[in-house]
Amino acid sequence: MSTSHNEAPTRTVDVDGTAFAYRELGTGSGVPVILLHHFTAVLDDWDPAVVDGLAAERRVILVDLRGVGATGGSTPDSVEAMAADAVAFVRALGLATVDLLGFSLGGMVAQAFVRQEPDLVRRLILAGTSPAGDAGPANAFPVLQEAIEKATGAGKHPKHFLFFSPTETSQAAADAFLGRLEQRTADRDPAATNETIGAQVTALAKWERSSTPAGLANVSQPVLVVNGDNDVMIPTISSFTLARALPNARLSIYPDSGHGALFQHHELFVRQALDFLRD
Amino acid sequence: MSTSHNEAPTRTVDVDGTAFAYRELGTGSGVPVILLHHFTAVLDDWDPAVVDGLAAERRVILVDLRGVGATGGSTPDSVEAMAADAVAFVRALGLATVDLLGFSLGGMVAQAFVRQEPDLVRRLILAGTSPAGDAGPANAFPVLQEAIEKATGAGKHPKHFLFFSPTETSQAAADAFLGRLEQRTADRDPAATNETIGAQVTALAKWERSSTPAGLANVSQPVLVVNGDNDVMIPTISSFTLARALPNARLSIYPDSGHGALFQHHELFVRQALDFLRD
After folding, report:
1. Which residue from A57, A194, B36, B144 has the highest number of Cβ atoms inside 10 Å of its Cβ?
2. Which range, of A62-66, A111-115, A209-213, B126-130, averages the lowest pLDDT?
3. Shortest Cα distance, chain B CAs vs residue A181, angstroms
4. Is B129 on the interface with A (CB under 8 A)?
5. What Gene3D superfamilies does the database record attribute to this sequence (chains A, B) (predicted)?
């Protein structure tokens, strides 16, 4: 294997009659890491610095869940259904054990995944996410709309406001991150549709309204919980709450950063993630 | 230099007429790390696994502050005065720049140190500690008394209850930690006196009553904040609050552990600390 994030071909695998798009790269005979994407994201929204960093030691698999990017079907409107799709995707690839890196909505999907199929999961990295029932995710749509308005006025990308802090250093990191997302030129993934975004918004709102912290105390897997210290999408305190609710979680909060802390501090994040995943 | 924690000789340096006891070990031409001790601690309360781990890459200096262990004088009853002593000690050694690792009370001393002499400090590691004004430290004495009673009843060391979680894994880590503290046989440091402990209790209570978060927003140095997820001495949430108040702090919370998380998870802590201190 090996290759790089910007050159890995988009492949498909049949998942119960639907073609799921994914890319695979990296090295090593260890357990592969499955990357579960954020709200509105497709394969090209993963930071090449993070993907290539992880791929230096691990086999890395990025996937578009149902209805997302080049994957067929309609996006379901619950985290649980998304997790069932992710499980089916992992099985379709014939994998017996995986690590999961879930970012934001993907972190919720990862939590539901490990509850549904604990034996499939070795370790989890949960970035910029929250346990079910915590306030925050239901605001994703108004927060997104406000960011789009601000971004249009300022001639910037909404992610400047959604994923980064207002500080000069964090905004410069946003520019660098957005530049990296443009590096891949061939075989780019279609953007998320409004239908998909609508279903994801519903799933996020249901996650927040869910009253169960949903068995986190039974997750025996080691977990690394990560966020920036100033997340306006999923409040940073939710990462603290999430780590406390898990019996075996390390928490890492990064300075001067927001929801996209793993991208802003990609070198530190990759070092900590590889350290955590190392056998 | 080099040598090991268990073999480093205890030296003294004159600090304005008082002999301060310290030990030095380690390697490298980088900025030395000064270790600032916890409530009731003397030189022999530092975990050899942590000290030797840091000393693999850094020059490490452990010190008994005024009135503590083999150091002369009477322990002052405020964190600010302890910090002034620590500053004077660093100057007496002729050091122009240092890194600080402060644990618990030592973490408060480190915060006061960097406010008093910001130009002396390059980076800070604050373990199991709190910002001024946060609830918790004033209970140190009743918490200590209760732990002594429980320990006497259970035939255990109070640190089993003060520094570790009640889980089987954390209690086993307590045994291992306490075993490491006994490894040094020659030239052991005198235990803290009741007079010293009394002054430290007063200092902790004043720290909690202090209303100022005391200029943390002006600390421009990089900081690594560390604690266990279940600290009964300085509540874990204070580490979260502390990291948020600092403009450039990484936060690391470790699973299944208490106040002494840096000792329980000494391998992980040393990796993260060396990564953080690396130039």
Report:
1. B36
2. A209-213
3. 26
4. no
5. alpha/beta hydrolase
Secondary structure letter of residue B119 according to DSSP: G
Bridge-based pairing of strands B11-15 and B18-26 is antiparallel
The single-letter code of the amino acid at A175 is D
Q: Which residues of chain B are within 8 Å of residue A217 when distances are taken between CB atoms? A: none
ipTM field: 0.90
The burial of B195, by beta-carbon neighbours within 10 Å (0-12 exposed, 13-18 middle, 19 or more buried), is given as exposed
- List, as own/partner pairs, every contact residues B82-88 make where C-beta atoms lie below 8 angstroms and the sequence separation is at least 24, other chains included: B82/B109, B82/B112, B82/B203, B83/B109, B83/B110, B83/B112, B83/B113, B83/B115, B83/B116, B84/B116, B85/B15, B85/B20, B86/B34, B86/B36, B86/B110, B86/B113, B87/B113, B87/B116, B87/B117, B87/B120, B88/B15, B88/B16
Give domain limits for chain B. Answer: 11-278
Residue A138 has pLDDT above 70, yes or no: yes
Contact A255 B255 (CB under 8 A): no
**What is the average pLDDT value for chain A, to the nearest integer?**
95
Residue A262 confidence (pLDDT):
98
List the structure tokens of B240.
């979260």
Task: Specify whether the CB–CB gap between A183 and A6 falls below 8 A.
Answer: yes
Instruction: Nearest by CB to B253, from A250, A271, A275: name it.
Output: A250
Q: What is the CA radius of gyration of chain A?
A: 17
Closest CA to A256 of B49, B13, B222: B222
Beta-carbon contacts of A63 under 8 Å, excluding residues fewer than 6 positions away, are A20, A21, A22, A34, A35, A36, A37, A43, A71, A86, A89
CB neighbour list of residue A199: distance below 8 Å, 6 or more residues apart:
A67, A74, A75, A76, A77
Task: Judge: B229–A236 Cβ closer than 8 Å, yes or no.
Answer: no
Find, in chain A, the residue whose alpha carbon is nearest to that of B267. Answer: A275
Q: In CATH terms, is domain B11-278 a member of 3.40.50.1820?
A: yes
Write out chain A residues lying below 8 Å of B277, CB-based. none
Residue B192 gets which letter from DSSP? P
- Evaluate whether A219 touches A195 at the Cβ level (below 8 Å): no
DSSP letter string, B8-57: PPPEEEEETTEEEEEEEEE--SS--EEEEPPTT--GGGS-HHHHHHHHTT
Tokens of B90: 């660093």
Q: Rounded CA gap, A170 and A174, in Å?
A: 6
